[in-house]
Sequence to fold (825 residues):
Amino acid sequence: MTSASQSLRSEAIIASGSLVKTKRGLARSRRLWLIASAIVCASMLLGFAVLDRSQSASLFTASWFNGDDENKLDQSLQAAADRALGDRAGTVIIMDPRSGRVRALVNSKLALTESFHPGSAIKPFTALAALRTKTIDAGSESVCREKYAHKDFHTTCSHPRDLPPLNPTEAIAYSCNYYFGKVGEHLAEPAFNATLADFGFGKKTGINRAAESAGKIVRSEWTPENAMGEGDYLQTTPIQLINAYATLVNGGHRFAPRVGRASGFVPELQTDVAVDPEDRALVIKGMRGAVRYGTAESAHLYSLPLYVFGKTGTATEQGGFRMQGWFVGFVSNFNDGSELAPVASDQPELAVLVFLSRGHGAEAAEVARPIFAAYARGRETDKPGNVNASGSSQSAAVAKPLELNGSTPRSGFTVRVRSGSEDSIRTMSLEDYVRGVVAAEGSVETEGEALKALAVASRTYAVKNIHRHARDGYDFCTSTHCQRFRALKADGSDVSAAVADAVESTHGVILMGSDAEVADSYFSASCGGATANLTSLWGETAPPYLRGVRDDSCANEPHAHWTDTISEVQLLKALKSDPRTNIGDHLHSINVSRSDVTGRAELIALEGDRRLTVHGWDFKIIVGRALGWNVLKSSRFVISRSGSNFVFRGSGFGHGLGLCQEGAHVMAEHGASFRQILAKYFPGTRVDREENGARSAADLLWNAPLEVEQRTAVQRSKTRSSGRRTLASEDFRISYPSNVDQREIEALLNFLQTSRRSLIAQFAAAGVNPRFPALEIFVNETTGDFVGRTRQPPWAAAATLNNRIELQPLATLRRRRILETTLRH
Fold:
């Protein structure tokens, strides 16, 4: 970092000397500022200008000064921002939060002159206003009731439903509408307005550009939704929002944003805002939570070799129901792996804002990821000693992958494992973690290739699910909830040679799906003859490699067949232990009402004082929890009755997804390699490692964005929406969740076409010849999605705007018996 980009508190620094812009030195400050402004203006006349998206991707067009690494990094950031946004309508702003220097900008007109509702992006400032006025404190908790309503305003929370009471930090991380709606009910409007004014909302930022909007603060009747960024109270420009966040994060120093090169840059401190350090720490912790386990978690920003924190926001488009997405994120030079130490005000070194005029906050966070990755590569390349044989700096494309051996990888990527028996958390490298998993899960395995397959599956799971227990302060537990793990001695003396060799010989190797993403990797003791389908087992969208394959290799293994006989008394006791299966005091019958193609019980019908239907896997878990995990070893069973007993005849042990350990053992005995084993159980995936020219786990953690940021916007959109499909005719285009049977959509399309023809015929009989436009039908996956996208109440069946129809889930409309009438209407 150059001297111009070092930490700024209440000072503005010039390379030739220090300019302290305080009241005591104001006159001298003005004289020096005029000189510096002249230099900046002259530089801009030479070509240092912000380009709109119709122009070149490079922010600055003048030649670089030799050794000016910050200016070179600016160019890389600009290019990354342009590629990341692609052809999507929106803007990207990249800023140094310690000085207000705008390092890169995409679509300056939208960024500076147009204002929008901030949505949930305003919640950190709502929390700050409430903390300032003692409306809440750090311990103020509330149980989310899922839905929030106030007069005519209705909204639904999108976070998990089974969370414990949320405090302010967690409410920010999960962007809980219920929590902030309740805060809004108690927060005084003047206090909220004062906080907004302190951070520059409702007025121009003073950026060195001729055209800038002041945004809007409409001080009308205060309503709780204003606290969530909804309603007409506040509209903000993107430059206002990132500058407000920068002021909050840097400890209260509000700078005028300035577009300029790092060399000779002169910051302009406008004012110092009083920000309580504890309040600031609470908000930043919430923003870190958003990245680690909350609304931005899906962007996997936490897997970068940076300490990233940020906030998403999704708002309703002005005058419509389409959604607009925000993300404001920061990089701190604090990355020692600890989540508990506070981020000092001089540590945040990069701010990135992404605004999408059609999208959600989580999508905006995904757009930001390759930008942060470009910064990480540029920063790593600039470190002393990172040079190649010729003495020149390595390019990002050939940067050395992380070394994951040892306890302190270069990226700071370590795995924190909590041992329940010892009540302790151990920090270790990824490879040490994999070694401990294979030692536990493969303790009786004697075939080397089977152990290698297990090592790759375990490593892939760890990379895909890193920070699984982030909210609890660690990454993985040592139970089957994550992966069984055995702590090993540092010298490796307590691990078998076979396990050590399996982990070492597959060092850094992981499974990749056909979509160039890390595969969802699972393994179980025995699949019982066919691996499970993720969709029918757990209700999640299954990638092609987790839809189940036939497996004859484990046919003669220990868990190929089993029988459990359970008395009516025991079974009734187990069923009454869970509300999903509590049929009352009498048990009449239990039947598998539907099995999937892999032979697993998908639905089980229970009949007693009440009739209930439960998913097969849930039934297995409920019974196992009550009677012991060796009872009902899998959900691949049939049920019969013998007197007062119920007899379960089944096969397999565990969930059966992915790698079957017993089958892998047999395949290895017959000469199969670990690659062949993995290809069998994860069809369509590929094994990646360095010497084959592919990416290892280390490459993925360090250089994954190299591929991601080179994709077009269409490709990124396809990756994001891989859970949706489209079926179209000349007159209708239906977008629907991939977990809906295509035959349902085909029937829906036929009904729409028939209804259209019938309507045209009716008009024709009346002598009218109307022209009907082609219609877009968007089938929402959940009622929460429908409410979030349309802002309609949950009891509404559909919403229309122009030629687009938003529908509740088909199952919901069918259950209400209004599907056909809704479509006709």
The first strand starts at residue 12 and ends at 14.
